[in-house]
Amino acid sequence: MNSRFIVRKVIVQIAFACSVAIQANAAEVNVAVAANFAAPMQQIAAAFTQDTGHAVVLSFAATGSLYAQIVNGAPYQMLLSADRKTPARLEEEGLGLGGTRFTYAVGKLALWSKQPGLVDQEGEVLRTGHFEKIALANPALAPYGAAAVETLTNLELLEQLQPKFVQGESIAQAFQFVATGNAPLGFVALSQIYENGQLTEGSAWIVPASLHAPIKQDAVILANGKDNPAATSFAAFLQSETAIRIICSFGYVCQQQ
Fold first, then answer.
1. In which element (H, E) is residue 170 found?
2. What number of other Cβ atoms are within 10 A of residue 68's Cβ?
3. Domains of the chain and any CATH numbers
């Protein structure tokens, strides 16, 4: 497989006391997850395993990369995308199961710096241009990168700032550029810097929703998951109160709100 599509894998298997019946019916679901949703997804997967006994294997990457892997035969049974069009496209191509697609969260874009005070709460730092680099995800692969470009276009700053772009393949890589100091600031998913109602570190501007199209994130069970009880169960769990509470704690706008 092309190295471009290598992803980080996480296996969530929580050991706990459960009945013989649950153990006998336990299954495993292989889930492809958009990079922005890594932190809440690991909490949700752990809660799901504890509740059902089913194991969850998670693979994180940019949505465009995950789509390419699925088309090329990757054995995922479910996709949690960072957009709506990718799951819909997979349905049209016969790789996603009709009637299983739903919106599990709506993302928020943020301009973030690890340095306190660098990013003001109105985003005016973008107009000063007093920084050498600005990180963002590849807009061709990552919906959050596309939202960043749309934001700069609407602010009439795209042409001015484009020479300073440092692009990551995914929003996770864009975040790493800022977290490691390779870029003083960058556009990230709010979920990467926000937990339990507050910013985890540094300074940030939450980009107004009016500056870009809504980042609606859809999930779909894939053709490989057709007869997998863990896939069906996990899709239902993502819409449960437990999952919604976790999703909202990371700063997403939940559909049920």
1. none
2. 17
3. 3-106+216-249 (3.40.190.10), 109-206 (3.40.190.10)
Q: What is the DSSP letter of 99?
A: T
- Residue 3 neighbours by CB distance under 10 Å: 5
Residue 170 has pLDDT above 50, yes or no: yes
- pLDDT tens figures, 229-242: 999 999 999 999 99
Q: Which residues contact 232 (CB under 8 A, 6 or more apart)?
A: 221, 225
Please, where are the H alpha helices in the chain?
20-25, 38-52, 63-71, 85-92, 125-128, 143-154, 158-161, 171-179, 229-237, 241-249
Exposure class string for 186-203: b at 16+ Cβ within 10 A, else e:
bbbbbbbbbeeeebeebb
Structure tokens at 4: 């471009």
Amino acid at 40: P
pLDDT digits (tens, 9 = 90+) for 79-120: 999 999 999 999 999 999 999 999 999 999 999 999 999 999
